[in-house]
Protein backbone atom coordinates (compact mmCIF):
# COMPACT_ATOMS: atom_id res chain seq x y z
CA UNK A 1 0.00 0.00 0.00
CA UNK A 2 2.80 2.28 0.95
CA UNK A 3 4.69 1.32 -2.22
CA UNK A 4 1.67 2.05 -4.45
CA UNK A 5 1.13 5.41 -2.73
CA UNK A 6 4.75 6.35 -3.36
CA UNK A 7 4.42 5.40 -7.03
CA UNK A 8 1.32 7.55 -7.36
CA UNK A 9 3.06 10.54 -5.78
CA UNK A 10 6.06 10.08 -8.10
CA UNK A 11 3.79 9.98 -11.15
CA UNK A 12 2.04 13.15 -9.98
CA UNK A 13 5.34 14.91 -9.41
CA UNK A 14 6.53 13.93 -12.89
CA UNK A 15 3.29 15.22 -14.42
CA UNK A 16 3.55 18.44 -12.43
CA UNK A 17 7.11 19.00 -13.60
CA UNK A 18 5.98 18.66 -17.18
CA UNK A 19 3.31 21.38 -16.68
CA UNK A 20 5.26 24.09 -14.88
CA UNK A 21 6.98 27.40 -15.46
CA UNK A 22 10.43 28.08 -14.09
CA UNK A 23 10.67 31.29 -12.02
CA UNK A 24 13.77 33.08 -10.73
CA UNK A 25 13.57 36.02 -8.31
CA UNK A 26 16.74 38.14 -8.09
CA UNK A 27 17.47 41.07 -5.79
CA UNK A 28 19.68 43.64 -7.56
CA UNK A 29 18.92 46.34 -5.01
CA UNK A 30 21.75 47.49 -2.76
CA UNK A 31 19.59 46.76 0.29
CA UNK A 32 17.81 43.71 1.69
CA UNK A 33 14.25 43.02 0.61
CA UNK A 34 11.76 40.34 1.62
CA UNK A 35 10.04 38.86 -1.48
CA UNK A 36 6.49 37.60 -1.05
CA UNK A 37 4.08 35.42 -3.07
CA UNK A 38 0.30 35.21 -3.05
CA UNK A 39 -2.10 33.04 -5.06
CA UNK A 40 -5.51 34.61 -5.66
CA UNK A 41 -7.20 31.51 -7.09
CA UNK A 42 -6.20 28.32 -5.32
CA UNK A 43 -7.80 26.12 -7.99
CA UNK A 44 -4.83 26.72 -10.26
CA UNK A 45 -2.30 25.45 -7.73
CA UNK A 46 0.53 27.08 -5.79
CA UNK A 47 4.20 27.80 -6.46
CA UNK A 48 6.67 25.23 -5.18
CA UNK A 49 8.23 27.52 -2.58
CA UNK A 50 7.18 29.27 0.61
CA UNK A 51 5.29 32.54 0.35
CA UNK A 52 8.04 34.76 1.76
CA UNK A 53 11.79 34.88 2.48
CA UNK A 54 14.64 37.26 3.15
CA UNK A 55 16.76 38.28 0.14
CA UNK A 56 19.96 40.24 0.80
CA UNK A 57 21.57 42.14 -2.10
CA UNK A 58 22.45 39.76 -4.94
CA UNK A 59 20.22 36.94 -3.67
CA UNK A 60 18.56 34.66 -6.25
CA UNK A 61 15.87 32.03 -5.72
CA UNK A 62 14.54 29.62 -8.39
CA UNK A 63 11.32 27.58 -8.15
CA UNK A 64 8.51 26.20 -10.30
CA UNK A 65 4.90 27.28 -10.56
CA UNK A 66 2.10 25.27 -12.20
CA UNK A 67 1.17 26.17 -15.74
CA UNK A 68 -2.34 26.73 -14.42
CA UNK A 69 -1.28 29.32 -11.83
CA UNK A 70 -4.08 31.88 -11.66
CA UNK A 71 -4.11 35.40 -10.20
CA UNK A 72 -0.62 34.94 -8.82
CA UNK A 73 1.52 37.85 -7.63
CA UNK A 74 5.07 38.43 -6.44
CA UNK A 75 6.35 41.63 -4.77
CA UNK A 76 9.10 42.96 -2.52
CA UNK A 77 8.74 44.10 1.08
CA UNK A 78 11.13 46.66 2.57
CA UNK A 79 12.51 47.45 6.04
CA UNK A 80 11.01 44.40 7.71
CA UNK A 81 11.56 43.26 11.28
CA UNK A 82 10.50 39.71 12.14
CA UNK A 83 12.50 39.36 15.35
CA UNK A 84 9.39 39.84 17.46
CA UNK A 85 7.51 36.86 16.07
CA UNK A 86 4.85 38.18 13.73
CA UNK A 87 6.87 41.21 12.70
CA UNK A 88 6.03 43.77 10.07
CA UNK A 89 7.45 45.70 7.12
CA UNK A 90 7.45 49.38 6.22
CA UNK A 91 6.11 48.66 2.70
CA UNK A 92 4.42 45.61 1.15
CA UNK A 93 3.48 44.16 4.51
CA UNK A 94 1.34 40.98 4.54
CA UNK A 95 -0.57 38.93 7.07
CA UNK A 96 1.45 36.01 8.34
CA UNK A 97 4.83 37.57 9.06
CA UNK A 98 7.87 36.39 7.12
CA UNK A 99 5.84 33.76 5.24
CA UNK A 100 2.65 35.41 4.03
CA UNK A 101 -0.64 33.71 4.85
CA UNK A 102 -1.92 31.44 2.09
CA UNK A 103 -5.40 32.95 2.08
CA UNK A 104 -5.01 36.50 3.43
CA UNK A 105 -1.40 37.39 2.82
CA UNK A 106 -1.99 39.36 -0.37
CA UNK A 107 0.16 42.32 0.68
CA UNK A 108 -0.65 45.91 1.52
CA UNK A 109 -0.47 48.87 -0.81
CA UNK A 110 1.52 50.66 -1.94
CA UNK A 111 3.68 48.03 -3.59
CA UNK A 112 4.89 47.19 -7.11
CA UNK A 113 3.41 43.84 -8.21
CA UNK A 114 4.40 41.18 -10.76
CA UNK A 115 1.11 39.52 -11.77
CA UNK A 116 0.50 36.24 -13.65
CA UNK A 117 -2.34 34.09 -14.98
CA UNK A 118 -1.53 30.90 -16.90
CA UNK A 119 -3.32 27.85 -18.30
CA UNK A 120 -6.98 27.38 -17.92
CA UNK A 121 -9.03 29.55 -20.29
CA UNK A 122 -6.02 31.27 -21.79
CA UNK A 123 -5.77 29.14 -24.98
CA UNK A 124 -2.06 28.63 -24.55
CA UNK A 125 -1.36 32.30 -23.72
CA UNK A 126 0.52 33.32 -20.58
CA UNK A 127 -0.70 36.70 -19.27
CA UNK A 128 1.57 38.86 -17.15
CA UNK A 129 2.12 42.50 -16.15
CA UNK A 130 3.89 44.80 -13.69
CA UNK A 131 1.05 46.54 -11.87
CA UNK A 132 1.43 49.94 -10.24
CA UNK A 133 -2.34 50.39 -9.84
CA UNK A 134 -1.81 50.31 -6.06
CA UNK A 135 1.34 52.45 -6.20
CA UNK A 136 5.05 51.57 -6.16
CA UNK A 137 7.76 50.77 -3.66
CA UNK A 138 10.59 48.89 -5.43
CA UNK A 139 11.43 49.02 -9.18
CA UNK A 140 10.94 45.67 -10.92
CA UNK A 141 10.79 43.90 -14.27
CA UNK A 142 9.50 40.62 -15.71
CA UNK A 143 11.81 39.17 -18.37
CA UNK A 144 11.01 36.09 -20.47
CA UNK A 145 13.49 33.65 -21.94
CA UNK A 146 11.76 33.60 -25.34
CA UNK A 147 10.94 36.51 -27.65
CA UNK A 148 7.89 37.69 -25.73
CA UNK A 149 8.06 41.32 -24.50
CA UNK A 150 9.22 42.51 -21.12
CA UNK A 151 6.93 44.19 -18.60
CA UNK A 152 8.53 46.65 -16.19
CA UNK A 153 8.66 49.74 -14.04
CA UNK A 154 12.42 50.17 -13.76
CA UNK A 155 12.54 53.74 -12.48
CA UNK A 156 12.44 54.62 -8.81
CA UNK A 157 9.39 56.87 -8.61
CA UNK A 158 9.65 57.50 -4.87
CA UNK A 159 11.96 60.58 -4.84
CA UNK A 160 9.77 62.61 -7.19
CA UNK A 161 6.44 61.37 -5.87
CA UNK A 162 3.75 64.09 -5.63
CA UNK A 163 3.44 65.17 -2.02
CA UNK A 164 -0.17 64.02 -1.63
CA UNK A 165 0.82 60.49 -2.74
CA UNK A 166 3.92 59.97 -0.61
CA UNK A 167 4.21 56.96 1.65
CA UNK A 168 6.05 56.99 5.00
CA UNK A 169 9.70 57.98 5.25
CA UNK A 170 12.22 55.18 5.71
CA UNK A 171 14.94 55.00 8.37
CA UNK A 172 17.16 57.25 6.24
CA UNK A 173 14.48 59.92 5.90
CA UNK A 174 13.69 59.07 2.28
CA UNK A 175 10.26 58.51 0.76
CA UNK A 176 9.66 54.74 0.97
CA UNK A 177 6.79 54.43 -1.51
CA UNK A 178 4.42 56.31 -3.78
CA UNK A 179 0.69 55.65 -3.57
CA UNK A 180 -1.71 55.72 -6.49
CA UNK A 181 -4.51 58.28 -6.46
CA UNK A 182 -6.90 55.45 -5.57
CA UNK A 183 -4.87 54.24 -2.57
CA UNK A 184 -4.35 57.84 -1.41
CA UNK A 185 -8.17 58.26 -1.56
CA UNK A 186 -7.86 61.64 -3.21
CA UNK A 187 -11.55 61.88 -4.09
CA UNK A 188 -12.72 60.83 -0.62
CA UNK A 189 -14.88 57.81 -1.47
CA UNK A 190 -13.03 54.65 -2.57
CA UNK A 191 -16.35 52.86 -3.12
CA UNK A 192 -17.44 55.38 -5.75
CA UNK A 193 -14.26 56.77 -7.22
CA UNK A 194 -13.06 57.87 -10.64
CA UNK A 195 -9.51 57.16 -9.46
CA UNK A 196 -10.39 53.59 -8.42
CA UNK A 197 -12.96 52.89 -11.17
CA UNK A 198 -15.56 51.88 -8.57
CA UNK A 199 -19.26 52.52 -8.03
CA UNK A 200 -20.69 54.73 -10.78
CA UNK A 201 -17.26 54.59 -12.45
CA UNK A 202 -16.99 50.80 -12.51
CA UNK A 203 -17.35 50.40 -16.28
CA UNK A 204 -14.74 51.37 -18.81
CA UNK A 205 -16.75 54.22 -20.44
CA UNK A 206 -17.36 55.79 -17.01
CA UNK A 207 -13.70 55.52 -15.97
CA UNK A 208 -11.59 57.15 -18.69
CA UNK A 209 -7.91 57.62 -18.14
CA UNK A 210 -8.36 61.40 -18.06
CA UNK A 211 -10.31 61.08 -14.81
CA UNK A 212 -7.46 59.32 -12.97
CA UNK A 213 -5.36 61.83 -11.13
CA UNK A 214 -1.57 61.60 -11.53
CA UNK A 215 -1.89 58.85 -14.15
CA UNK A 216 0.67 60.57 -16.37
CA UNK A 217 3.25 60.73 -13.58
CA UNK A 218 3.31 56.93 -13.38
CA UNK A 219 2.69 56.00 -17.00
CA UNK A 220 5.19 58.38 -18.57
CA UNK A 221 7.96 57.09 -16.29
CA UNK A 222 6.91 53.44 -16.64
CA UNK A 223 5.17 53.05 -20.01
CA UNK A 224 5.42 49.22 -19.88
CA UNK A 225 3.44 48.95 -16.66
CA UNK A 226 -0.24 48.61 -15.76
CA UNK A 227 -1.12 52.01 -14.28
CA UNK A 228 -4.91 52.02 -13.73
CA UNK A 229 -7.87 49.63 -13.77
CA UNK A 230 -8.58 49.83 -17.52
CA UNK A 231 -5.06 50.51 -18.76
CA UNK A 232 -5.22 47.76 -21.41
CA UNK A 233 -6.25 50.43 -23.90
CA UNK A 234 -2.74 51.88 -23.73
CA UNK A 235 -1.40 48.77 -25.49
CA UNK A 236 1.55 48.57 -23.08
CA UNK A 237 -0.08 47.41 -19.85
CA UNK A 238 -0.87 43.70 -20.00
CA UNK A 239 1.20 41.30 -22.08
CA UNK A 240 0.31 37.91 -23.51
CA UNK A 241 2.86 35.31 -24.58
CA UNK A 242 1.62 32.68 -27.04
CA UNK A 243 3.39 29.59 -25.79
CA UNK A 244 2.27 27.61 -28.85
CA UNK A 245 4.13 30.00 -31.16
CA UNK A 246 7.01 31.13 -28.96
CA UNK A 247 7.47 28.10 -26.72
CA UNK A 248 7.10 27.88 -22.97
CA UNK A 249 9.25 30.59 -21.36
CA UNK A 250 11.17 30.81 -18.13
CA UNK A 251 10.40 33.91 -16.07
CA UNK A 252 12.91 36.20 -14.34
CA UNK A 253 11.52 38.66 -11.79
CA UNK A 254 14.24 41.23 -11.11
CA UNK A 255 14.03 43.71 -8.25
CA UNK A 256 15.85 47.00 -8.97
CA UNK A 257 16.66 45.89 -12.54
CA UNK A 258 18.66 49.05 -13.19
CA UNK A 259 20.72 48.46 -10.05
CA UNK A 260 21.92 51.31 -7.82
CA UNK A 261 18.75 51.15 -5.70
CA UNK A 262 16.63 51.26 -8.82
CA UNK A 263 17.71 54.77 -9.74
CA UNK A 264 18.55 53.88 -13.32
CA UNK A 265 17.12 57.18 -14.49
CA UNK A 266 15.79 60.24 -12.71
CA UNK A 267 12.10 60.14 -11.99
CA UNK A 268 10.17 62.79 -13.86
CA UNK A 269 9.14 65.78 -11.83
CA UNK A 270 5.49 65.58 -10.86
CA UNK A 271 3.17 67.62 -12.98
CA UNK A 272 2.15 70.76 -11.09
CA UNK A 273 -1.44 70.76 -10.01
CA UNK A 274 -3.37 73.64 -11.49
CA UNK A 275 -3.73 76.30 -8.86
CA UNK A 276 -7.36 76.97 -7.92
CA UNK A 277 -8.65 80.09 -9.51
CA UNK A 278 -8.67 82.88 -6.92
CA UNK A 279 -12.08 84.18 -5.99
CA UNK A 280 -12.58 87.49 -7.68
CA UNK A 281 -12.27 90.36 -5.25
CA UNK A 282 -15.19 92.78 -5.30
CA UNK A 283 -14.45 95.54 -7.64
CA UNK A 284 -13.67 98.74 -5.74
CA UNK A 285 -16.13 101.54 -6.18
CA UNK A 286 -14.88 103.70 -8.94
CA UNK A 287 -13.36 106.88 -7.66
CA UNK A 288 -14.85 110.01 -9.22
CA UNK A 289 -12.91 110.88 -12.20
CA UNK A 290 -10.94 114.04 -11.60
CA UNK A 291 -11.96 116.98 -13.68
CA UNK A 292 -9.88 117.01 -16.73
CA UNK A 293 -7.05 119.39 -16.38
CA UNK A 294 -7.45 122.40 -18.65
CA UNK A 295 -5.55 122.00 -21.73
CA UNK A 296 -2.53 124.21 -21.53
CA UNK A 297 -2.75 127.20 -23.77
CA UNK A 298 -0.37 126.87 -26.54
CA UNK A 299 2.66 128.92 -25.85
CA UNK A 300 2.74 131.94 -28.12
CA UNK A 301 5.05 131.45 -30.89
CA UNK A 302 8.00 133.69 -30.31
CA UNK A 303 8.03 136.61 -32.65
CA UNK A 304 10.98 136.37 -34.82
CA UNK A 305 13.58 138.82 -33.73
CA UNK A 306 14.15 141.40 -36.35
CA UNK A 307 17.17 140.73 -38.28
CA UNK A 308 19.87 143.03 -37.05
CA UNK A 309 20.34 145.94 -39.30
CA UNK A 310 23.53 145.58 -41.07
CA UNK A 311 26.14 147.68 -39.48
CA UNK A 312 27.00 150.58 -41.69
CA UNK A 313 30.03 149.94 -43.58
CA UNK A 314 32.78 152.00 -42.14
CA UNK A 315 33.34 155.09 -44.14
CA UNK A 316 36.44 154.69 -46.03
CA UNK A 317 39.22 156.60 -44.49
CA UNK A 318 39.60 159.80 -46.36
CA UNK A 319 42.22 159.46 -48.81
CA UNK A 320 44.98 161.80 -47.87
CA UNK A 321 44.80 164.86 -49.96
CA UNK A 322 47.74 164.91 -52.12
CA UNK A 323 50.11 167.52 -51.14
CA UNK A 324 49.85 170.26 -53.66
CA UNK A 325 52.74 170.23 -55.82
CA UNK A 326 54.87 173.14 -55.00
CA UNK A 327 54.24 175.89 -57.30
CA UNK A 328 57.12 176.12 -59.57
CA UNK A 329 59.22 179.01 -58.82
CA UNK A 330 58.70 181.50 -61.54
CA UNK A 331 61.42 181.45 -63.87
CA UNK A 332 63.38 184.59 -63.59
CA UNK A 333 62.25 187.02 -66.11
CA UNK A 334 64.87 187.45 -68.66
CA UNK A 335 66.71 190.52 -68.30
CA UNK A 336 65.86 192.82 -71.12
CA UNK A 337 68.47 192.93 -73.58
CA UNK A 338 70.18 196.21 -73.52
CA UNK A 339 68.90 198.40 -76.16
CA UNK A 340 71.47 198.82 -78.75
CA UNK A 341 73.00 202.02 -78.56
CA UNK A 342 72.21 204.07 -81.64
CA UNK A 343 74.99 204.52 -83.84
CA UNK A 344 75.98 208.05 -83.72
CA UNK A 345 75.30 209.91 -86.79
CA UNK A 346 78.36 210.91 -88.39
CA UNK A 347 78.99 214.13 -87.06
CA UNK A 348 81.81 216.02 -86.88
CA UNK A 349 83.81 214.28 -84.59
CA UNK A 350 83.09 215.65 -81.18
CA UNK A 351 85.28 215.90 -78.66
CA UNK A 352 85.78 212.63 -77.00
CA UNK A 353 83.38 212.10 -74.12
CA UNK A 354 84.74 210.32 -71.15
CA UNK A 355 83.47 206.70 -70.75
CA UNK A 356 80.96 206.17 -67.88
CA UNK A 357 81.80 203.85 -65.06
CA UNK A 358 80.09 200.43 -65.44
CA UNK A 359 76.79 200.14 -63.36
CA UNK A 360 75.47 197.00 -61.53
CA UNK A 361 72.36 195.55 -63.25
CA UNK A 362 69.15 195.25 -61.00
CA UNK A 363 66.39 192.49 -60.93
CA UNK A 364 62.84 193.52 -61.55
CA UNK A 365 61.36 190.75 -59.06
CA UNK A 366 62.87 189.23 -56.07
CA UNK A 367 62.90 185.43 -55.78
CA UNK A 368 59.89 184.32 -53.45
CA UNK A 369 60.19 181.27 -51.13
CA UNK A 370 57.05 179.19 -51.56
CA UNK A 371 55.60 177.75 -48.20
CA UNK A 372 54.24 174.17 -48.34
CA UNK A 373 50.84 173.69 -46.66
CA UNK A 374 50.82 171.55 -43.44
CA UNK A 375 48.70 168.26 -43.66
CA UNK A 376 45.95 167.81 -41.09
CA UNK A 377 46.67 165.17 -38.46
UniProtKB/TrEMBL annotation:
Signal peptide: 1-18
Organism superkingdom: Eukaryota
Biased composition (Basic residues): 365-377
Residue ranges with Acidic residues bias: 298-342
Region spans: Disordered: 259-377
UniProt xrefs under InterPro entries: Osmotin/thaumatin-like_sf, Thaumatin
Keywords annotated in UniProt: Signal
Keyword match Glycosyltransferase: no
Keyword Signal belongs to the record: yes
Biased composition (Pro residues): 267-281, 343-359
Protein name: Osmotin, thaumatin-like protein
Organism (species): Auricularia subglabra (strain TFB-10046 / SS5) (White-rot fungus)
Amino acid sequence: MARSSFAALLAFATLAAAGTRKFTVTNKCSYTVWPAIFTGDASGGYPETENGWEAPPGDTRTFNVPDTWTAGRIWARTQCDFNSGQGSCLTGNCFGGLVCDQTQGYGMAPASLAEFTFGRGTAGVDWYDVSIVDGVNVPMSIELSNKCPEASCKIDLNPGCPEELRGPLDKDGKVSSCKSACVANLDGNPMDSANCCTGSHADRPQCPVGGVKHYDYFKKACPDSYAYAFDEDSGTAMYGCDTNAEGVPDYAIILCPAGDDGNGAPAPAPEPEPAPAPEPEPAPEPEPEPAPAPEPEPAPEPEPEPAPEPEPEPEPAPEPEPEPAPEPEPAPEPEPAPEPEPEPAPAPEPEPVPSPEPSTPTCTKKMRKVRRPTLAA
